[in-house]
Amino acid sequence: MPLFEPLDETRPLTGRLALGVEYDGSAYCGWQRLKHAASVQASLEDALSKVAAAPVKVLCSGRTDSGVHATRQVLHFDPPAARSQKAWVFGANANLPRDIAVRWVHPVPDDFHARFKALARRYRYVILNQPSRPVLERANVTWCRDPLDAEAMHRAAQVLVGEHDFSSFRAAGCQSKSPWRHLHFIEVHRHGPLVVIDVQGNAFLHHMIRNIAGALVAVGRGEQAETYLAELLTLKDRAQGAVTAPACGLHFVDSLYDEAYGLPAEPLGPNLLAFLGEWTGERPLPDCPMVEYRRGRPLVSLIATEE
Q: Does the keyword Isomerase apply (predicted)?
């Protein structure tokens, strides 16, 4: 897919719409609308409501915490008025603050749900590993002045791949009913001064990635052995874990859906990593029940197959 796709301004769109959104989370309490603080959801709903001249409510693929960024947050809404592709994108952006932008809009069937139809979510945690503090990148990386062994961090992280009880990596206030999650992959690579933790899974617990990042930094510094994450996984006790890494380094970079929905493909963010050249949806998803079920395969046949 080319980077520049013309937006149609002649055909009013009716029915459910999906939006791709990018935001700098520094000034927000997170995605979810709250009464006492600014949120990304409130800003988007207010902007879209002005375009529609009627109230608009949106649902996202995954909520982000205070200070966390997104380069491909996917959401859906049922518009109360028909507007063209160009009107939705340009109109919303004209009414949004400079740290939030709509990247695309795409018509989807009524059964599309940004959260419940997502096959996977992907995040990148970006660490600037150099002696001097960051200046231009200060809002979207975490700074570590101590040398990090990215290869040791990568090896230590591989024990997390697969389906596990991630109790040692969930926040104390996490409201999820189950600590079990399925990590499709986790990789740690160095690109010059940047150390990037790239992780994809079916879903994530509150602060899960930031707690994993904190533990991996302890390994990278040499404070903990490469067996550290395996030990934490076995303990199932958050109190035994490392510090929670800062929110500013975390980026929500992808939410994957069945190809039948035809959502636009984009280069994965953040733009600091554009030179890697990886586009969304290139990696195969694991053959697991949740993915197959959300692709529309009946649960009964899944159970029969597994038996």
A: yes
3-state secondary structure of 228: helix
Q: Is the entire prediction scored with pTM above 0.90?
A: yes
Beta-strand pair 59-60/69-77: antiparallel
CB atoms within 10 A of CB 110: 8
Q: Which among 24, 65, 198, 254 is annotated as catalytic?
A: 65
> How high is the pLDDT of residue 259?
94
Enumerate residues 6+ apart whose C-beta is below 8 A from 165: 179, 180, 233, 236
Q: Is the dihedral of CA 9, 103, 118, 32 positive or negative?
A: negative
CB-neighbour burial class of residue 277 (10 A; exposed 0-12, middle 13-18, buried 19+) = exposed
Q: Which residues contact 234 (CB under 8 A, 6 or more apart)?
A: none
Query: 123: annotated binding-site residue?
Result: yes
Q: Which of 205, 212, 220, 213 is nearest to 175 (CA)?
A: 205
DSSP string of 119-145, one letter each residue:
-EEEEEEEEEESSSPPSTTTTTSEEE-
Name beta bridge partners: 304: none
pLDDT in tens, 31-55: 999 988 999 999 999 999 999 999 9
Length in residues, the chain: 307
CA–CA dist 269, 260 (Å, integer)? 23
Which of 145-177 are b and which e, b meaning 16 or more Cβ less than 10 Å from the residue's Cβ? eeebbbebbbebbbbbbeebebbbbbbeebeee
Determine whether 24 is an active site residue: no
Is the confidence at residue 217, as pLDDT, over 90?
yes
